[in-house]
């Protein structure tokens, strides 16, 4: 099972770790998550690995079996309908993994030592996922999201209730998933560099309960017959 490591290098660089670990900004460390001493997210070991997605076309060749060889379409549910063995889940797999899955189900039942090659003829473009409190959550081409600021701007920018100092970047390197915590406003001010973003990264912008609470209260203010002074003791 992958080990999840909680990465706070950006705050270490800004000298804010004490504030984060204290009462100002709680850091959740559930079992299996540990704090690292890294000052930046690791770079993916081999760059972007092409992953199969629904709608992709795969050229599958089974050595010495023309009947099984051909071009196959990945269905909308992320499965591949292959002769003899039926539906095989392939969404998110590399081409090599798809070949191994098909071979493992053919071996022994229909073929001895099947030799299978999978060549993507059409694949979805590499993407970055941006979610949470942005105007247009979704998956965007990685080429448009080379840094964190660019990725957030591509998703329409921060929403009204975004918590600018609670922006997470999840990145898998090998069998480890790292989580980087960033402050968008600090990056915009040049307090620390805009971090590099890679294909398959997942970006999540946190929610500010304080702003939502204040918005709800302000909606009630016009109903009051006298002036009102609001005190938010919880903060953002």
Automatic annotation (TrEMBL):
Residues 128-178 form the Soluble ligand binding domain. It comes from Pelagerythrobacter marinus. The keyword rRNA-binding does not apply. It comes from the Bacteria. Pfam families: Poly_export (PF02563), SLBB (PF10531). Residues 1-21 form the signal peptide. Residues 47-118 form the Polysaccharide export protein N-terminal domain. This is Polysaccharide export protein. PANTHER family: POLYSACCHARIDE EXPORT PROTEIN GFCE-RELATED. The lineage of its organism: Bacteria, Pseudomonadati, Pseudomonadota, Alphaproteobacteria, Sphingomonadales. The keyword Nucleus does not apply. Keywords: Signal.
């Amino acid at each position: 099972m992958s080990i999840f490591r909680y990465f706070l290098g950006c705050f270490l660089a800004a000298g804010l770790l004490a504030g984060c670990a204290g009462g100002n900004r709680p850091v959740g460390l559930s079992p299996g998550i540990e704090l690292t001493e890294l000052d930046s997210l690791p770079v993916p070991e081999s760059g972007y690995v092409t992953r199969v997605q629904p709608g992709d076309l795969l050229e599958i060749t089974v050595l010495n079996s023309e009947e099984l060889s051909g071009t196959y379409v990945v269905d909308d549910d992320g499965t591949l309908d292959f002769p003899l063995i039926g539906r095989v889940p392939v969404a998110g797999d590399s081409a090599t993994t798809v070949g191994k899955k098909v071979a493992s189900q053919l071996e022994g039942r229909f073929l001895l030592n099947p030799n299978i090659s999978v060549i993507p003829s059409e694949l979805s473009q590499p993407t970055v996922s941006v979610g949470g409190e942005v105007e247009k959550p979704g998956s965007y081409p990685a080429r448009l999201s080379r840094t964190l600021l660019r990725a957030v701007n591509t998703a329409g920018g921060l929403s009204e209730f975004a918590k600018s100092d609670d922006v997470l970047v999840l990145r898998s390197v090998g069998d480890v998933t790292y989580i980087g915590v960033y402050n968008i406003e600090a990056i915009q001010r040049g307090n620390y560099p805009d971090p590099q973003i890679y294909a398959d990264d997942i970006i999540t912008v946190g929610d500010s309960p304080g702003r939502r609470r204040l918005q709800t209260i302000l909606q009630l203010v016009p109903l009051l017959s006298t002036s009102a002074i609001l005190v938010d003791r919880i903060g953002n």
